[in-house]
């Protein structure tokens, strides 16, 4: 019997996750349905890039641009953790955390979507970077992942604070870039730096796990 490929296992994971979210995620956490779907798009695009033999091909470049546009949706899910404040988790009668089943279900739904998208997308970003580095003989292997993560952190800022989805980049590019030009300030740069560092930390840990194996 032919074994199921890792790609189909991951697709199955997100399909099951989305089905569970559709049936179990209630307001105000039903935003997870759309955000998880958007977070999966760069993962699927990375699967398609893997099928292309040459990094220098036009098809690879086209999918890479699409992937880069949608990639911030994966680390964006990290910022959804702040919605946990909506759970009102403390039981003020005893000062401890509440053991409300609804609260812990919402917590679990958010954590599974966030970690799934973040870990898989980070792993794929590293794989894509390695292919490009090998093709163009780039010796400083951390430069490209850092640039891509910096770009994705800017994308997270755009989505979180300007409330602009990746689709606007392709639907209304002129309006999109006008918003980008006007967004730069010290608070924005601090946010971008923090999100970039968090992503780099996740990548470093994944590399250590791979090295240990």
TrEMBL record:
The chain crosses the membrane at residues 12-38, 58-78, 103-121, 142-164, 184-206. The keyword Transmembrane helix applies. Pfam families: DUF1361. InterPro entries: DUF1361. Keywords: Membrane, Transmembrane, Transmembrane helix. This is Uncharacterized protein. It comes from Paucilactobacillus oligofermentans DSM 15707 = LMG 22743.
């Amino acid at each position: 019997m032919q074994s199921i490929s890792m790609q189909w296992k991951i697709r199955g994971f997100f399909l099951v996750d989305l089905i569970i979210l559709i049936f179990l995620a209630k307001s105000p956490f039903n935003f997870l349905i759309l955000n998880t779907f958007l977070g999966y798009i760069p993962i699927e695009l990375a699967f398609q890039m893997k099928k292309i033999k040459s990094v220098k091909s036009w098809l690879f470049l086209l999918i890479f641009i699409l992937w880069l546009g949608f990639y911030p949706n994966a680390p964006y899910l990290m910022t959804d953790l702040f919605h946990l404040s909506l759970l009102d988790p403390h039981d003020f009668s005893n000062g401890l955390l509440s053991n409300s089943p609804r609260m812990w279900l919402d917590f679990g739904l958010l954590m599974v979507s966030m970690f799934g998208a973040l870990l898989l997308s980070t792993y794929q970003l590293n794989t894509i970077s390695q292919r490009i580095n090998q093709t163009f003989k780039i010796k400083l292997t951390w430069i490209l992942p850092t640039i891509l993560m910096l770009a994705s952190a800017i994308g997270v800022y755009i989505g979180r604070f300007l409330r602009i989805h990746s689709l606007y980049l392709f639907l209304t590019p002129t309006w999109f870039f006008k918003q980008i030009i006007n967004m730069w300030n010290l608070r924005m740069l601090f946010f971008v730096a923090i999100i970039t560092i968090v992503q780099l930390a996740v990548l470093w840990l994944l590399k250590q796990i791979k090295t240990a194996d």
